[in-house]
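Progress report, Aim 2. The chain analyzed during this reporting quarter is listed below.
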Amino acid sequence: MTHTHIIGAGLAGISAALALAAAGRPATLYEAGPAAGGRCRSYFDRELDCRIDNGNHLVLSGNRAVMAYLETIGARHLMGGPGVALFPFIDVSTGERWTVAPDPGPVPWWVFRRARRVPGTDLGEYLQLLHLRRAGADETVAHALDAKSALYHKLLEPLAVAALNTPPDAALARLLDTVVRETLGRGGRACIPLYPREGLSETFIDPAIAHLAARGTALRTGRRIAALRNEANRITAMETPDGPIAVTAGESVVLAVPPPVAGGLLPWLTVPDAFEAILNIHFKIDATPPDTLSGAGFIGVIGGAAEWIFLKPGVVSVTISAANRLVDRSAEDIAALVWPDVAAALGLSGGMPAARVVKERRATFAATAAQEMRRPGPRTSLANLVLAGDWTATGLPATIEGAIRSGRAAADAVLTI
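Predicted structure tokens for the chain:
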């Protein structure tokens, strides 16, 4: 059995390790930070005096790689949600509320029922979803869809921004089409929203690390790989501040780090170089608000600064995607900007509670045509080096689903070396 060195213990690196472990291949995960997880992690926040996720991640039942990952590590039961396809919204500028509730099967009968479809829409507007399938290679979401329609404003635009983390007038329509085909296009059974009952680390990371440890995969935290040495078309050593780690004959390397880090280690590698920010704002609450979310546990916001609000034990969390326009504002200003939306959506009164603003300045690559061309596949010009990460050429935007698929693709490449 040959050994694989996996640099980066985020979801992509962990996914690669799981696939290799299933094939009986030993591996070691190297993580520069103090803990595994990357952007998918939880931590104790002293300001709020509670544990929070660094961000909010909503997955759908149609995310096949995510579901398989959770089953593998025995964590499927740790995911919560309404149990059916249910997406509540509020327009905070008007106070209007509605819930999108697709039928379980692939036939979209729900669009014929006024009470289940987006208010103010007519049947013809739903044909926009077919327009995505015919979108040109460089066509943007705003161009492929009818940006003046109620359906776009009240459903498709917030869906696109959340999935692609890029403004619709720049975001690539075919990436959104892939997301829609695998979820909404397959009916309500593929659109059931899921989120961790407790936390990201407790659901996605800790069970995976335990699963890997039981199968002989080691995790080395605080181990930054500062350089890669190569000779004769293969990686021969990984340089660390404590000295080199040899990569012997027959061993492989999976590079599962963010694109700027990958580009720094491999200057000849073309990687995405434009990014979009994500803001997550966590408010400490002492009492559970009245149920204004239709039992979903989250709500989409139209007409305000907030975009998605998640209700968690002791905390209300807000996510704003494609947030380059806001990321340089002070944390105090950002929290004050979104709190009125939270209060309106949850029916809260009183002053703004303590808040923590988490800024991810380079959360994902910008999902544009230009950046799509910069996404490499898993294989490289070096015989024993493969790549993983949601920024590689997965056919998906930078999502949990894409990260996990990229890890599996990297493992498949390693197994054929």
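The domain at 4-33+222-273+368-415 is CATH 3.50.50.60 (FAD/NAD(P)-binding domain). The longest helix spans residues 331-346. These observations will guide the mutagenesis work planned for the next reporting period.
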